[in-house]
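In practice, a research group might receive sequence data for several interacting partners and want a quick structural hypothesis before committing to experiments. The following worked case mirrors that situation: the sequences arrive first, and a predicted assembly follows.
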Amino acid sequence: MTNNKITIAIDGFSSCGKSTLAKQIAAKLGYNFIDSGAMYRAITLYFLRNGVKLNNKESIDNALSNIQLHFQFNENTGKSEIHLNEENVEKYIRDLLVAEKVSEVAAIKEVRTFAVAQQQEMGKKKGIVMDGRDIGTVVFPDAELKIFMTADPAIRVKRRFEELYATHPSVTIDEVKHNLELRDYIDSNREESPLRKADDALTLDNSSLTREEQFDMVLKWVNEKTNL
Ligand code: DC
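A structural hypothesis for the assembly, expressed as tokens:
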């Protein structure tokens, strides 16, 4: 593999394991991993905490002008964790309360402009793996490697339920299923940068792949792109 650092964009539906894969690949390559969904979640947390009205442009603009986001690498988790105005909010942003609102917040034009500008800045030096919904289409349309992840909906619900249950034992399968279906629908049908596969993205359906198989497949793609 040469020293040529590339940009890797990973998009796909909720709970396909995008972040897990992105983190693995970034660790292997010594790249920076950015979970762009964490930014929309942190903005949503701020909106919820401050009662920001989603139908009021002034209220949104004002809130965004008071939000500072940054990622800080945590050696224990091996992940860059999101900070909202200097507070590490990683443990709050996965709550169902945030999950219930985040797609609505992420559909707001001003919110996307705010987040995308920061994401593009982070990717300027390449050597980055970013996952989200519009990374290959809008944030990094020139990314050398674009992956579109998908998995059977029932498998995604099960994975998400198991993940949430560990910290929120009161959650039910039905709640998780409803939330995932709703988010997929809003993310795919919104006016601003809807989730769609970039024309030059490679599809990765991991319904019946182990993490190792998936990792090997993507490393092969990375090698192909960096050895050009
Ligand atoms: O990846 P995630 O589930 O943490 O993302 C949370 C929400 O943020 C998701 O419902 C859609 C939105 N999102 C987005 O619109 N664009 C991105 N690049 C990343 C996430």
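Before designing any experiment, note the following. The chain has one domain: 7-223. Strands lie at 7-12, 32-35, 69-74, 79-84, 87-88, 128-132, 145-150, 202-205.
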